[in-house]
């Protein structure tokens, strides 16, 4: 049970870092909500607007780029 609690805490921390980075890059809150709903349901998602960037990435793969 403790491992599950720690894993949940780690995910929450990672996602909070992702959200803060998105806010710093002026991503609208409605896009964050849609992204989170897609993440939870397992659908491909992307918060990127430029078509030249990769689409369908999860927050875990997008996070390091935002935090640079």
Automatic annotation (TrEMBL):
Which residue intervals make up region (Disordered)?
45-68
The major lineage groups are: Eukaryota, Viridiplantae, Streptophyta, Embryophyta, Tracheophyta
- The organism named in the record is Rhododendron williamsianum
Q: Mind telling me what this protein is named?
A: Uncharacterized protein
């Amino acid at each position: 049970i403790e491992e599950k609690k720690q894993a949940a805490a780690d995910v929450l921390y990672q996602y909070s870092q992702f959200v803060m980075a998105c806010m710093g890059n002026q991503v609208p809150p409605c896009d964050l909500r849609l992204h989170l709903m897609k993440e939870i349901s397992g659908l491909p998602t992307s918060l990127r607007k430029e078509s030249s960037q990769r689409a369908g990435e999860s927050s875990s793969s997008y996070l390091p780029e935002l935090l640079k």
